[in-house]
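#struct-pred

JT: dropping the chains for the assembly here, can someone run the whole complex?
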Amino acid sequence: MRLETRKLLDKAFSGLGLIAIAIMALALLFILTPIITRGSKAFVFKGTIEHRRVMLEQFNRGNPDKFNAEMAEVSKARKPVFEMMAAYEANTMALEKQLEETMEAKKERAKELKKEIRTLKKKEGKEAEIAAKDAEEERLSEEAKALKNELDALTEKRTEPFEEIADVIKELLGPVPGEKTPVLLRQQYGQTRWDRTQVKLHEVLYKEEWDYSNADTMGQKIQIPRIDSFRGTKLEPMFAYLEKNLEAMMAPRTTFYWQFITDKSKDSHIFGGIWPEVLGTIYLTLGAMFFAIPMGVIAAIYLCEYAKEGRVVSFLRICISTLAGVPSIVFGLFGLAFFLNTIQVSDSKSVLAGSLTLSLLILPTIIRSSEEAILAVPRTYKEAALGLGAGRWHTVLTVILPAALPGILTGIVISMGRAAGETAPIIFTAAVSVGAPLKIWETLNQPTPALPWNIYNLCTEHEAVDEIRHVQYGMVFTLVAIVLLLNLAAILMRARIAKKLRG
Amino acid sequence: MSEEITLKKIDTFAAHDDENADKGVHIEAKDFSLFYGEFEAVRKVSMQIPKQKVTAMIGPSGCGKSTLLRSINRMNDLIPSTHASGEMIFDGYNIYAKNIDVVTLRARVGMVFQKPNVFPKSIFDNVAYGPRLQGVKNKQVLSEMVEQSLRQAAIWDEVKDRLTANALGMSGGQQQRLCIARALAIKPEILLMDEPTSALDPKATAKIEDLIGELRQNYTIIIVTHNMQQAARVSDLTAFMYEGVLVEFGKTKQLFTNPKNPQTENYITGRFG
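RK: done, full complex below.
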């Protein structure tokens, strides 16, 4: 081959390699950037007065005096809204009442007239009177019916849209002062985050509808200003007021909520943090390590140092490689079938069953990496130890394992990251969507929420997905941070031990 | 003619004053053969290795001298599918008998390998490895043993200030002497050396050779070497092996100056090998 061709080939290879690396880096950036930018919003955001109220009432955090002073300001700003609503409601109700009363009166009169007609019919020679009364009754009934229609129209035009608005405003500002406290926690507070507050404000101002008028295209989303329904009523100024004074009503302030990680969740993640998930993930990962490390390392030692090379060992190696390629959901099903249904390690899903399942999942990785690390230990170390009169087990313990430790540790930490992030194996064996943080002994027979499962759960099955996107991103951020930190720890630990071994 | 060449090439012999003193036989091979699977690497070797002398084994590559050396503390067991026939008698026992405890045997027959193979531990821990194996736990006793071994291996002065440093930080020659110290720390009776200087420079080699000269006071030393000058310089007895067969075994000076076997003569005069 000519020199130029060879050079060109070399360049082509390094170029392809660089391109591959660049694509990988881009992909990572593409994934990590939104995770970091959005995930950090679970920790740092503009929190409203409602957030501080939740913190104070649910977590006993913050200064009550300061809060009360602030709340007084806010209440002052909110007061006109509630007053306008009350005025409108009173007005509408008065109108309704008036209509209803006239209608009832007319109905009453019509009934009376009917009675009179009946009595008149028994007598003779009152045809003219009867006809007159009949006509009168008919007129009254018609009028009552018209009034009923008017009342219905009023309800449709005034009351229903108002009720809709009142609901949204309750979501925005929290329950109307003086009313009975709602049962659900999420109804007891307004919007805790400024970004969500603005979304809600939009919802107050505009009604979203689908427009199907053009049959040739798909339905179009249109925003109808709600104010149109309330022209000329006492509620009309409220919209402008809300838009103008929202900040005074919510008192947004940049909040650093690092307790997001260590707080329990309240009302299934509407408020609070993700501690049960974080703790569950820690339990599951440590549990998996507890089972997988001894099994994996001992298996690797057996394969490298004790087993005689032959068909059985090659078969075992093939099995281990195959095990590493089995889809994780299959491990999950196996965990359910074996640990829960057959040997019944616990009555229901539990952290124990999940840990056992995860440990099986990462076992092949640990065995392979430990095996490679042990095989990479120079044979001369082994010879030296044996030559000094050490037994086989002693050689493994004092010379081979210490020298193989960096490699073994790397494998362990990489599989730790995997165990922390796996979803499928714990669906059937350990994970639930809502739960309290477990005590250590409760892990033996109780299920737990866990980050990977709850990320999935929040974005697919939660009833208020849109409200708590930040929690979802916060979870993803936390999980990625945990996995990255574990990997970083592995790199540092490996470097340190390798340095110590190198001298 | 050949004799002249021989004399020219090899003119420094070990000057040991007790050359003729007979201290008894330490190891005896009787029709000893060792097989790697089908291949017979050592063929029916019979030899008596005397106590507290230096015995050198020479021969071309692949002649089985290393295999024979490793047979003495059964290091060949590490290689799968090896088996032996004949007898290797040490202290009255055939070490290839079934009821022999290999671990104890290796504690009595120390070994130094071709490449320095210190553990990636501190200098102290390297030397203390053997004593610790034998159950010495007292720190005082341990450090005394370590010091004594390091002094015996003539490396104490170089390392006494950095006993806790990693042994891999030392030079090759120092590492090899540390390996000797480590082997001495288990108080063996026999010291096997498998080309101990082949990876070292001449200066370090000289130091090791001096060391061997001193150690023969207390130990039986068997050394495999490719370097015939080295064999002549350090050993009392020399064995020449060729293709697994022990061709000639006798006093070093006599073997180099007046070999009985023409094969030996050809080898030491450099006609082959």
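JT: nice. The two ends of chain A are 45 Å apart (CA to CA). The longest helix of chain A spans residues 64-122.
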